[in-house]
Amino acid sequence: MWEEFLKYTKEIYEAFGIAFASFLMAFTMALIRTKRKHGKADWLEAGMCGLFAVGTWSLLMWFNVPEMVAVGAASAIGFKGTHFVSDLIDKKTGGDNEINR
User: Fold this and answer.
1) Over its length of 101 residues, how does the chain's per-residue pLDDT go in tens digits?
2) Where does the chain cross the membrane (predicted)?
3) Amino acid 91: pLDDT
4) Structural domain of 29
């Protein structure tokens, strides 16, 4: 029974280990950044940064970008934050982030 559990855990780690590491790096970096910037950790922003990181990692892996570059780009999102990414997308698409201006 214990061997089966370890085998199952190893299979899960092999399939999702890098995605989990990307999420964890971005999440941790965002928590530290928001704690230092605002005096308290913003768990929601950290979670969003982690999800953006996994999405970025997946997209870059789909484009056959080397795995280490993809993880680095994903963790950079955690460092810069979701507001930076949102503003960057708005600038590129010409969108307006505010509803009523």
Assistant:
1) 888 988 888 888 887 888 888 888 888 888 888 888 888 888 888 888 888 888 888 888 889 988 888 878 877 776 777 777 777 777 888 766 554 44
2) 12-32, 44-63
3) 83
4) 17-92
Residues in Cβ contact with 35 at an 8 Å cutoff, skipping those fewer than 6 apart: 41
Number of Cβ within a 10 Å radius of residue 52: 22
Residue 37, in any domain of the structure: yes
Burial of 72 per CB tally in 10 Å (0-12, 13-18, 19+):
middle
Helices marked H in 39-65: 43-62
Q: In the chain, how many H helices and how many E strands?
A: 4, 0
Q: How many domains does the chain have?
A: 1
Contact 58, 19 (CB under 8 A): yes
